[in-house]
Amino acid sequence: MSDGYDPTGVSHDPGAFARWLRLREAADASARAADLLEPLRRQLPAGGPTVIHDLGAGTGSMGRWLAPRLPGPQHWVLHDRDPGLLARARAAPPAAADGAPVTVATRRADLTRLTAADLADASLVTASALLDMLTAEEVERIVAACAERPTLLTLSVVGRVELTPPDPLDDEVAKAFNDHQRRAVAGRTLLGPDALDACVAAFARHGVSAIVRPSPWRLGPDQAELAAGWFTGWLGAAREQRPELAGPAEAYGRRRLAQARAGRLGVLVDHRDLLAGCP
What we know:
The protein is an alpha/beta fold. It has helices at residues 14-31, 37-43, 61-66, 83-91, 136-146, 170-181, 195-205, 224-241, 246-261, and strands at residues 50-55, 74-80, 102-108, 124-128, 151-164, 184-185, 188-189, 210-214, 217-219, 266-276. Strands 1, 2, 3, 4, 5, 8, 9 and 10 form an eight-stranded mixed beta sheet that branches. Strands 6-7 form a two-stranded antiparallel ribbon. α5 (136-146) packs across α7 and α8 runs antiparallel to α9. The longest helix has 18 residues, at 14-31. It starts with 13 loop residues before the first helix and ends with a strand.
């Protein structure tokens, strides 16, 4: 779940990352493309529980958004490498709007090694803000694992950010951030904002069609805390990628952060949602 945080997650305190996920949960829920739900519902089994595997589940926010929007009993299998996040997800499980039972299991897993056997019982696979953290090979592997069943992948960044009021340094920082998302980490070259297109192409190679819809964050005065937190991570990643920005970005950062905290900074972070296997 990047959008300004290190895609590897290695350098961040798990508690701080959990707070970031909690801070962004409402914005994620508002942004997701709800018009993908109807074609998804048509593909789900009519009898028995719907088994949903959530990849990179974090604290379980995808389940809390999606479970109330799906009919009937559900069983969620939450995959994440961080046992602390999985514990938080178990403590705040999803609930169905129609009162149907919802059960939850957790799996500590390395998603880059996922196989079709890991998803053998899945009626649906979901993930949120995951693709940009992966390499081209890892996207191929995950698509191969998911290709036999409906797959809903939400909130993939596509490299476009718009801040209002505009500032001359915005575009330079945005480019540096996008380059940071495409960086090499421990021998892995991340796809960053190119991941969505790579995922669509990978599904097509498996003969699976995909529907893509916009799901932008639009942060205004009522999300000042999130805007400030996002901006801090976004600028920090840009400066890490291009150290020569440190001087020019110092005054820029103070100015923008003051605007964000005062609710005077408008933030649009463009994302896309993808639904595959639901013709």
